[in-house]
Design goal:
By secondary structure, this protein is of the alpha/beta class. The chain is built from nine helices and ten strands.
Length: 312
């Protein structure tokens, strides 16, 4: 029989995710795509509390901020082109009012810091090994906020630097949450603005660093999202029109592979029921103030309660 595709062998993962577990996703686009799929299946998920992050150092910094329960103050904010922003956050937290920007940041920090202490699974997705440091300091920024390039120094991380960063982080987690499972992934989204060759070198550094981390520390694992796209799908029909980001079909395929890896057969069936409930939650009525819609909402809330209690 002629082979028409490369099937990526996914490592076995014995401990399965259930709806009782709390899960955090942090990092590049994979976190948003798969994290949102879990939300639609009514899992307890916190997705990117700092917004999308791309490099391992920024992700490590963000997790340490949550562990230490840091509260941001006005000195942590900067102002450019009419907006207040934080170098630790994505631009979705930026605002033209300083107090609003600070409030958005601290409200999310409080929620996510508390959530982090309760999670069973942490998914970390690296996007690139290229980092931008402030020109006048060694601080690695999570987002450049469209500020001129002269304000930053661009640098390619080494595997040694990444491993050193995560040795410290894993030791912290072993203290506050020793049963935590950490699953690393590499985003299949190519950073072509860095250049095609530079992107490949960057991804190689990320993959080698993760390999050494999971060989060294228990409760750390790797899910091959990058390889599924590069070797199995391997076709531009699974990309958006920018030929860089994965489209709806590609995301759904990765989600299927994710489910085969991390869910039991029973839980995969339960997800279908959850997704129907999620659609009911997000239903937009023609008459939101009608008695019919009030009854619909009451029934939906009762179904959700029964879902988590395991009542059919």
């Amino acid at each position: 029989m002629i082979k028409l595709r490369t099937i990526v062998k996914i490592p076995k993962y014995e401990d399965k995710i259930t709806h009782a577990d709390k899960i955090m996703f942090i990092g590049s686009c994979f976190t948003e795509n798969i994290g949102n799929k879990l939300l639609e299946s009514l899992f307890k998920v916190d997705i990117n509390p700092f917004g999308i992050l791309y490099n391992p150092v920024s992700i490590r910094n963000s997790l340490e901020i949550l562990i230490n329960k840091k509260i941001f103050n006005l000195k942590d904010l900067n102002f450019y082109n009419g907006l207040w922003y934080s170098y630790f956050h994505h631009s979705k937290f930026s605002h033209n009012k300083q107090d609003v920007c600070l409030q958005k940041i601290n409200e999310q920090l409080k929620i996510s810091s508390n959530f982090l202490t309760q999670i069973k699974y942490l998914f970390i997705t690296f996007g690139t090994a290229w980092v931008y440091n402030l020109a006048h300091s060694t601080q690695t920024v999570s987002n450049c906020h469209k500020i001129p390039d002269r304000n930053f120094n661009r640098k390619l991380l080494t595997t040694e630097i990444i491993i050193s960063n995560y040795e410290q982080l894993i030791k912290l987690f072993n203290t506050i949450n020793p049963n935590l499972k950490i699953i690393f992934t590499v985003s299949p989204v190519r950073h072509l603005r860095d250049g095609a060759i530079e992107n490949q070198r960057s991804k190689a550094i990320l993959l080698l660093a993760i390999k050494q981390i999971i060989e060294q520390y228990k409760n750390t694992y790797y899910f091959p999202a990058y390889e599924i796209v590069m070797d199995d799908l391997r076709d531009y029909r699974f990309y958006e029109s920018d030929l860089t980001h994965i489209n709806y079909t590609g995301i759904n395929y990765i989600w299927e592979q994710f489910g085969e890896t991390f869910f039991t057969k029973e839980n995969r069936q339960k997800n279908y029921k959850a997704q129907k409930l999620f659609k009911s939650i997000n239903h937009k009525p023609n008459k939101p103030k009608s008695e019919e819609y009030a009854i619909f909402r009451k029934k939906t809330l009762e179904k959700i309660k029964n879902f988590y209690l395991g009542i059919e």
